[in-house]
Design a protein that fits this description.
29% of the residues lie in helices and 28% in strands. It is of the alpha+beta class. Keywords: ATP-binding, Kinase, Nucleotide-binding, Serine/threonine-protein kinase, Transferase.
C-alpha cells in the first residue's frame, strides 16, 4: 500500500470483499477502474462494485484519489443520491459498493447533450424535489 493512509480509520471496512460479493460481471470500465454488477451474498441484493487499482506507476496519486472518493462518498447524504454501502481493500485494489441502479446515461435517454445541459444536469439532480 502506498505511504499515504486514510485519515479516518473507518473509511475502509475490514472484511474481504471476495467473501461478501459474488456473481460479478463487468458492466463498464474507464481509466480509473472497472464497474461490475454483483450480488451481496449477505442480503442477496444486486449491487454495483467499482474496482480501482492503486498498484504500479503513480500508485501514491491513485491511492490519494481513492481515499478522496471514498471519503466523499461516505459523507454524502441526500435523497436524490444513491447511498454508499462501503469500501473494501483486497490486494492493491479498492472495491467501492453502491446499490445497483439501472437507467443508462444522459446520452442514452435523450441523445447528445449540450455543454449547458451537462453542467446544469448534475446540479438539478442534487436539488430537493
Amino acid at each position: 500500500m502506498p505511504s499515504l493512509s486514510p485519515t479516518d480509520p473507518g473509511l475502509f471496512r475490514p472484511e474481504d470483499p471476495e467473501t461478501l460479493f459474488g456473481d460479478l460481471w463487468e458492466i463498464g470500465h474507464g481509466s480509473f477502474g472497472a464497474v461490475y454488477s454483483a450480488r451481496d451474498l449477505r442480503t442477496n441484493e444486486l449491487v454495483a462494485i467499482k474496482k480501482m487499482s492503486y498498484g504500479g506507476k503513480r500508485s501514491d496519486e491513485k491511492w490519494r484519489d481513492i481515499v478522496r472518493e471514498a471519503s466523499l462518498l461516505q459523507r454524502l447524504r441526500h435523497p436524490n443520491i444513491v447511498a454508499f454501502r462501503g469500501c473494501y481493500l483486497r490486494g492493491h485494489t479498492a472495491w467501492v459498493s453502491d446499490p445497483q441502479v439501472w437507467g443508462g446515461t444522459h446520452k442514452c435517454g435523450v441523445g447528445p447533450i449540450s455543454v449547458g445541459q451537462g453542467v446544469s444536469g448534475p446540479i438539478s439532480v442534487g436539488q430537493d424535489p
